[in-house]
Write a structure and sequence with these properties.
heterodimer, A: 158 residues, alpha+beta, Chemotaxis protein chec, eight-stranded antiparallel sheet, two-stranded antiparallel ribbon, 3 helices, 10 strands, B: 467 residues, alpha/beta, OB fold (Dihydrolipoamide Acetyltransferase, E2P), Rossmann fold, 2 domains, seven-stranded mixed sheet, five-stranded mixed sheet, 15 helices, 24% strand, elongated, disordered N terminus
């Protein structure tokens, strides 16, 4: 992945999570992965198009997703959720949208044109994701609610 | 963790530790200081080790003389360059199952130097020499019941395998006593002269210092080289393979001579030693801009006619010095062509600083200067050069979406990949190269001529063409 793309995603994930949840974020070491990888239970995905093609995936366990959703709902004085219902899913999708949106804005300032596709969310057990031929950058984030992995796979349009 | 080599010598040590191949990070911490070396071997499907200081040499035993009326773990006596030593079958000694080898077939074994005498032991197969830190040796656990706990010095995990370290002094001290306690032996032993040679206690009488054993280092030279090979991968992520074996052997001779002159241990004590050993290995102008001379040589590899496009895959670009140098050479030669260099490295720190490389213009070779612009912090390359290079954080072993390229520049990369990784990379490179495309490997690296590539005669060594 082009090195110019890395920082915008890392910075946005870091600052949006910190701002929205008001918690301290510990960032793990970045690494690359090209094989299929397990998904922890909840995966929000945002597609990218434009100069590049690819997607950003936000991966977390169901418990972490509920805690994060509750943290965001509380900041808006809304009722907390107990199971990952429609409200919970919408909240996580929104978080994914905010992070990707901010990253794309930063990239735009650097002269790269990216467009977003509407986010989608997947939940379930024992899921795996694989993108043949694309290497993914993994940005692990540790917060009190649990671990969130931002998984970015983009490549230049040939 | 694979460690993808970059080109800068200074960065290698740090990178190896930082990137630590998966699952090895704790091991990396532990092997920082190697102070215990052992020869490993297998016995009945388990891995064992013996302190290298106790091992005089690794041997193949053939044609030993059977001696009647000895315990069944004594296979006979053996003539080791004029000295008669007893041969013990460790598998029988420990009551481990094993296939009976046919008579006359060579058996793998070790010559062990005990305090008082030498003896040979037969094992299933010798693995290799492993260097570990004494701190990582853990006390034996009752689970290893194949061998009496008393004879185990400890257990150690290395590369996901558990090695049981045997205390040979204790094992054979015990056998001496045990044999003495057996009256059957006692009687027969005293009657036959040959008997005496099989008895360890008595063998002491025969024990003379063996000329064959190099007393200076206490370690067989072949073992010593094996150990260098092993520590190069541990300390520097450098794999000795046919790609670089000739160089390493040559260097090993110079190195052992120099170290002996300084009266220091031939073996590496730290990562710095391993880097010192490797310092002459790196290709010219590694970690800096190419000299005029090197640029000229690379230029001589380029086609004479003007191409419309010229694409390069620069695998293992580290901080980007070679990518920029190559871009200058290409732009000055094929100004009109569409030139593109994909520069990859998996060292994130190095590769992410590459696009914004800043330097002092007066340190540059003259032909680079017309392509630079000077800013407040120093000079950098003009967009004419910068726009031709795409720096990517990428592991060269993963698949990529590059178009077909005219050249693969991978200097000193293969030596930092293990055998299977080398095969993956070379296959990748062959797939990406256009027909007639060339690959440039390190100055001291060689590709097998029968493989995908054939050597190109040029002023530069390490240049190959796709078959």
């Amino acid at each position: 992945m082009r090195v110019e793309y890395i920082n915008p995603f890392v910075e946005s994930a870091y600052s949006v999570i910190q701002e929205v949840l008001g918690v301290e974020v510990k960032r793990g070491d970045l690494y690359l992965k090209s094989t299929s990888m397990p998904v922890m239970g909840v995966a929000a995905i945002v597609g990218l198009a434009g100069d590049v093609e690819g997607r950003v995936l936000f991966d977390m366990s169901k418990e972490t997703a509920i805690k994060i959703a509750n943290g965001m709902l509380a900041s808006m004085d809304m009722e907390p959720i107990v199971t990952l219902n429609d409200m919970g899913r919408a909240t996580i999708t929104e978080l994914a949208n905010m992070i990707t949106g901010q990253a794309v804005t930063k990239l735009h300032d650097l002269g790269f044109t990216f467009d977003l596709t509407p986010p989608a969310i997947f939940t379930g057990d024992n899921m795996e994701v694989s993108d043949p031929g694309v290497e993914a950058l993994i940005v692990p984030m540790d917060i009190p609610q649990g671990r969130v992995e931002v998984n970015v796979a983009v490549r230049e349009r040939a | 963790m694979q460690t993808q080599p970059g080109n800068s010598v200074e960065s290698l040590a740090g990178r190896t530790i930082r990137n630590g191949r998966s699952g090895q990070s704790t091991e990396q911490d532990r092997v920082e200081h190697i102070d215990f070396k052992m020869v490993t071997f297998s016995l009945g499907g388990k891995d064992y080790g013996i302190d290298i200081m106790k091992v005089a040499e690794i041997a193949k035993f053939r044609n030993f003389t059977y001696v009647p009326n000895t315990p069944d773990f004594v296979r006979g006596v053996y003539n080791l360059r004029g000295d008669i030593i007893s041969i013990i079958d460790l598998r029988k000694l420990f009551n481990l199952s094993h296939d009976d080898q046919t008579q006359g077939e060579a058996c793998d074994g070790l010559i062990i130097r005990l305090e008082e005498n030498m003896l040979g032991v037969i094992v299933d197969s010798i693995a290799r020499v492993v260097g570990i830190s004494r701190n990582s040796i853990q006390p034996p656990h009752p689970i290893f019941a194949d061998v009496n706990l008393k004879y185990i010095e400890g257990v150690v995990e290395y590369n996901d395998r558990l090695y049981i370290i045997l205390d040979v002094e204790r094992i054979f001290a015990r056998e001496e006593r045990k044999a003495d306690d057996q009256p059957v032996f006692d009687d027969t032993r005293r009657t036959g002269e040959a008997m005496e040679q099989t008895k360890y206690a008595l063998a002491e009488e025969h024990a003379q210092p063996l000329q064959a054993a190099p007393e200076a280092t206490g370690v067989d030279p072949a073992l010593s080289f094996e150990f260098i090979r092993d520590t190069l991968s541990t300390f520097a992520g450098f794999y000795v393979s046919p790609v670089n074996e000739n160089w390493v052997r040559q260097r090993y001779e110079d190195w052992s001579r120099d170290r002996r002159d300084e009266s220091r241990d031939v073996q590496f004590e730290s990562a710095e030693d391993a880097q010192a050993f490797l310092s002459p290995f790196y290709s010219p102008d590694t970690g800096r801009f190419w000299s005029q001379e090197y640029c000229r040589r690379i230029r001589s590899l380029l086609p004479e006619s003007q191409p419309t496009t010229f694409f390069v895959w620069n695998a293992g670009c580290a901080g980007g010095y070679e990518s920029y140098s190559l871009a200058v050479v290409l732009v000055s030669k094929f100004g009109e062509a569409r030139i593109k260099i994909w520069a990859h490295d998996k060292d994130l720190m190095q590769v992410s600083s590459a696009p914004n490389l800043v330097f002092q213009a007066n340190t540059l070779p003259p032909e680079f200067r017309e392509y630079t612009v000077t800013g407040t912090n120093g000079s950098s390359f003009s967009s004419e050069i910068k726009d031709r290079i795409v720096f990517e954080y990428h592991d060269v072993l993963h698949s990529n979406s590059l178009p077909a390229v005219d050249m693969v520049l991978a200097r000193d990369l293969l030596s930092f990949l293990d055998a299977s990784e080398q095969a993956v990379f070379l296959e990748n490179a062959a797939e990406k190269l256009k027909s007639g495309g060339i690959i440039v490997v390190g100055e001291h690296e060689r590709l097998d001529d029968s493989s995908l590539f054939e050597a190109v005669q040029s002023e530069l060594s390490g240049v190959y063409q796709l078959r």
